[in-house]
């Protein structure tokens, strides 16, 4: 089954949106296989956002993600990577459709509430950055037979 890395960013945690966000993915029918509230070190932030190293906002992005705890999660499900991206909405909340997480709760691109892997390669890379293998669980969720 496909896995993705989702992270409620510092603004989402500070604004009390963790429960709301977890609930959306649970209600959709996806399965939570790992989660933790954590502080992100500068090294981890730079590794996670390495593809944006040359962008003018890189320093700001690293400062922001390390400024306060994040809620790191791994979710599992059929097409969970692409579907989670749709549920998050466009990167800039001003372009994100109502009904999406960024569309409903965000205002600016710098504080857009949530991160989600954008491909199977990023998902694998990002899960490995934030989680040790033993922090991820495998379990049979009974409701899955009513989802699939
Ligand atoms: P994504 O989070 O939707 O995958 P990316 O293009 O990978 O979007 O950008 C990573 C993060 O960098 C965004 O979520 C956003 O918080 C931040 N970001 C992107 N563009 C800008 C910008 O122009 N100014 C400030 N922050 C930005």
From TrEMBL:
<dbReference type="InterPro" id="IPR034907">
    <property type="entry name" value="NDK-like_dom"/>
</dbReference>
<feature type="binding site">
    <location>
        <position position="57"/>
    </location>
    <ligand>
        <name>ATP</name>
    </ligand>
</feature>
<dbReference type="Pfam" id="PF00334">
    <property type="entry name" value="NDK"/>
</dbReference>
<feature type="binding site">
    <location>
        <position position="85"/>
    </location>
    <ligand>
        <name>ATP</name>
    </ligand>
</feature>
<comment type="subunit">
    <text>Homotetramer.</text>
</comment>
<feature type="domain" description="Nucleoside diphosphate kinase-like">
    <location>
        <begin position="1"/>
        <end position="138"/>
    </location>
</feature>
<dbReference type="GO" id="GO:0016301">
    <property type="term" value="F:kinase activity"/>
</dbReference>
<dbReference type="InterPro" id="IPR036850">
    <property type="entry name" value="NDK-like_dom_sf"/>
</dbReference>
<feature type="binding site">
    <location>
        <position position="102"/>
    </location>
    <ligand>
        <name>ATP</name>
    </ligand>
</feature>
<keyword id="KW-0547">Nucleotide-binding</keyword>
<protein>
    <recommendedName>
        <fullName>Nucleoside diphosphate kinase</fullName>
        <ecNumber>2.7.4.6</ecNumber>
    </recommendedName>
</protein>
<comment type="similarity">
    <text>Belongs to the NDK family.</text>
</comment>
<keyword id="KW-0963">Cytoplasm</keyword>
<keyword id="KW-0418">Kinase</keyword>
<feature type="binding site">
    <location>
        <position position="91"/>
    </location>
    <ligand>
        <name>ATP</name>
    </ligand>
</feature>
<keyword id="KW-0808">Transferase</keyword>
<feature type="modified residue" description="Phosphoserine">
    <location>
        <position position="122"/>
    </location>
</feature>
<keyword id="KW-0546">Nucleotide metabolism</keyword>
<feature type="binding site">
    <location>
        <position position="112"/>
    </location>
    <ligand>
        <name>ATP</name>
    </ligand>
</feature>
<keyword id="KW-0479">Metal-binding</keyword>
<keyword id="KW-0067">ATP-binding</keyword>
<keyword id="KW-0460">Magnesium</keyword>
<keyword id="KW-0597">Phosphoprotein</keyword>
<feature type="active site" description="Pros-phosphohistidine intermediate">
    <location>
        <position position="115"/>
    </location>
</feature>
<comment type="function">
    <text>Major role in the synthesis of nucleoside triphosphates other than ATP. The ATP gamma phosphate is transferred to the NDP beta phosphate via a ping-pong mechanism, using a phosphorylated active-site intermediate.</text>
</comment>
<dbReference type="InterPro" id="IPR001564">
    <property type="entry name" value="Nucleoside_diP_kinase"/>
</dbReference>
<feature type="modified residue" description="Phosphothreonine">
    <location>
        <position position="91"/>
    </location>
</feature>
<feature type="binding site">
    <location>
        <position position="9"/>
    </location>
    <ligand>
        <name>ATP</name>
    </ligand>
</feature>
<dbReference type="InterPro" id="IPR023005">
    <property type="entry name" value="Nucleoside_diP_kinase_AS"/>
</dbReference>
């Amino acid at each position: 089954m496909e896995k993705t890395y989702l992270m409620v960013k510092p603004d989402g945690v500070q604004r009390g949106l963790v429960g709301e966000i977890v609930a959306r993915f649970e209600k959709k029918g996806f399965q939570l296989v790992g989660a933790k509230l954590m502080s992100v070190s500068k090294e981890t932030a730079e590794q996670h956002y390495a593809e944006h190293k040359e962008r003018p906002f890189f320093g700001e992005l690293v400062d922001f993600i390390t400024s306060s705890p994040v809620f790191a999660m791994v979710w599992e499900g059929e097409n969970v990577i692409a579907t989670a991206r749709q549920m998050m909405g466009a990167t800039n909340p001003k372009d994100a459709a109502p009904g999406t997480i960024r569309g409903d709760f965000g205002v600016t691109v710098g504080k857009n509430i949530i991160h989600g892997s954008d491909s199977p390669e990023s998902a694998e890379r990002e899960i490995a950055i934030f989680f040790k293998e033993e922090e991820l669980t495998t379990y049979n969720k009974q409701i899955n037979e009513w989802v699939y």
